[in-house]
Specification:
- With 132 residues, the chain is an all-beta fold.
- Helix content is 0%, strand content 48%.
- It has strands at residues 3-7, 10-12, 18-25, 32-39, 46-52, 57-60, 68-73, 78-83, 92-100, 121-122, 126-130.
- The strands form two sheets. Strands 2, 4, 5, 6, 9, 10 and 11 form a seven-stranded mixed beta sheet that branches. A four-stranded antiparallel beta sheet has the order 1-3-8-7, with no helix packed on it.
- Strand 4 and strand 5 (46-52) form a beta hairpin.
- The protein is globular, with a radius of gyration of 14 Å.
Amino acid sequence: QLQLVESGGGLVQPGGSLRLSCEASGFTLDQYAIAWFRQAPGKNREGVSCISRSDDTTVYSDAVKGRFTVFADNAKNTVYLQMNSLQPEDTAVYYCAARNQADLIPYFYCSDYAEANDYAAWGQGTRVTVSS
């Protein structure tokens, strides 16, 4: 059974940092692309980042590029989202999701992650609040 468990959210002051974790079970990271999404109160869910370990692809939204870094630890089967220079507009519930790469050609592992609707598993979400 595919499962994702996020952790690491919390309250941080503007300019601060947090590291979110997305621990996967039931599959390995070389089989699935992992995407991060967030949903702020009253707003639609938006794509934040995507990583594919099989071809070392990482993708970021314009809103977080240069501030967030996604990386993976294969030994722990965990994907991390390092978030630096956090701003109040980053306040949201953050989710990770897994997409089966066996159904995709490599170009699409992460290129359309924000619009894709074929994710095989979602985590429960972790809340990030950026406030002074």
